[in-house]
Design brief:
about 35% helix; Multidrug-efflux Transporter 1 Regulator Bmrr, Chain A; Multidrug-efflux Transporter Regulator, Chain: A, Domain 2; alpha+beta; 2 domains; single chain; about 280 residues; 8 helices
Length: about 280
C-alpha cells in the first residue's frame, strides 16, 4: 500500500486533491488508520484516479464524474470521450497543448490497465554519482509543472558547461525532493544535474551551481521510458504497479537518467530509477 504522499506522486496529482476527492466520496482511501487518521491507498486505485482526472479534464463537474464512475464507464467509451476532447483542444490556444499531452497520457495509462511491465522492470543497485546541478521549485510533480522548470534549468546548466569548457562525465540525471517547508506530495524541489569528474569545482561553473554526490542506492526498480517526458505517466504508473505487486515499497521520487536526448523529444530514452526501502 502507498501513503497518500506516495500515491499522489504515482498518480501525478496533489495530496490536496486526493483529500478533496476523499471528502466528496469520489476516491476513498483503501485504509484509514483508526489512531492516526493517515490514509493509505492501493495500486489498483490508480485506475479510478485516472478515470476521475480524465473525466474532469473533459469538463465534467465532479458530481457528474462521480455518477459516471459509479456506472463503470468502460475504457472504449472513455476513449471516445477523450478523443472528442482532444479534437477540441487541438483548435484551442497554444497554451492548451501541454494539457492535451496529459489527457493523451492518461488515456494510454487507462488502456494499459491490467498489464504489468514484467521483464521490462529491472531490479539493480545504483552507484554513487557526482553531479553539478541547478535546482528550482515546481508547483507539483505533474509533467505540466515539472517541464517548465526542468527545461530552463538544463538549458542554463548546459550553457554554463559550454562556457567553462567542461564536458559532462555521463548522461544527465534529474532527481526530486519534497520542497523544504512544504507538505509531502505538494511543491517539489527539482534537481537538474550533469555528472562531472572530481577535478570540476562548483566555482568553475558560476553562481548557483552546486556539486553534490548522490549516494549509492542498494536496490532500485528501473524501467526505460521511450518518448517525451510529457508522456511518461503510463510508464511511471506501470512501474508503480510492479513495485506494489511484488511487495516492495518505494523510498522516494524516481530518478530520471537521460539515456538519449535527441532534438526530437519523441525519440528520447529515459530510465526511471525508483529507490526501494527495506526488503520485500
Amino acid at each position: 500500500m502507498f501513503t497518500i504522499g506516495d500515491f499522489a506522486k504515482h498518480g501525478r496529482v496533489s495530496v490536496r486533491m486526493l483529500r478533496h476527492y476523499d471528502a466528496l466520496g469520489l476516491l476513498r482511501p483503501a485504509r484509514v488508520d483508526p489512531f492516526t487518521g493517515y490514509r493509505s491507498y492501493e495500486a489498483g486505485q490508480l485506475a479510478r484516479l485516472n478515470r476521475l482526472v480524465a473525466l474532469k479534464d473533459l469538463g465534467f463537474t465532479l458530481e457528474q464524474v462521480g455518477t459516471i464512475l459509479d456506472e463503470r464507464v468502460g475504457a472504449e467509451e472513455l476513449r471516445g470521450m477523450l478523443r472528442l476532447r482532444q479534437a477540441e483542444l487541438e483548435s484551442a490556444m497554444a497554451a492548451a497543448a501541454a494539457r492535451l499531452v496529459q489527457v493523451e497520457a492518461r488515456l494510454r495509462t487507462i488502456e494499459s490497465e491490467g498489464t504489468m511491465p514484467g521483464d521490462d522492470v529491472v531490479l539493480k543497485s545504483l552507484p554513487p554519482v557526482r553531479l553539478a546541478e541547478l535546482a528550482g521549485i515546481a508547483a507539483s510533480y505533474g509533467p505540466e509543472d515539472i517541464g517548465p522548470v526542468i527545461g530552463p534549468l538544463y538549458e542554463e546548466l548546459c550553457r554554463r558547461f559550454e562556457e567553462a569548457g567542461v564536458a559532462p562525465d555521463g548522461p544527465g540525471l534529474a532527481y526530486y525532493e519534497d520542497a523544504p517547508g512544504t507538505e509531502a506530495g505538494t511543491a517539489v524541489l527539482v534537481h537538474a544535474g550533469l555528472p562531472v569528474a572530481s577535478r570540476v569545482r562548483a566555482e568553475d561553473l558560476g553562481g548557483g551551481v552546486r556539486i553534490v554526490t548522490l549516494p549509492a542506492v542498494e536496490r532500485a526498480a528501473t524501467v526505460v521510458h521511450r518518448g517525451s517526458m510529457d508522456s511518461v505517466l503510463p510508464t511511471a504508473q506501470a512501474l508503480a504497479r510492479w513495485i506494489d505487486a511484488h511487495g516492495h515499497r518505494s523510498a522516494g521520487y524516481a530518478r530520471e537518467l537521460a539515456l538519449a536526448c535527441p532534438e526530437d523529444r519523441d525519440r528520447w530514452v529515459t530510465e526511471l530509477q525508483e529507490p526501494l526501502a527495506g526488503t520485500p
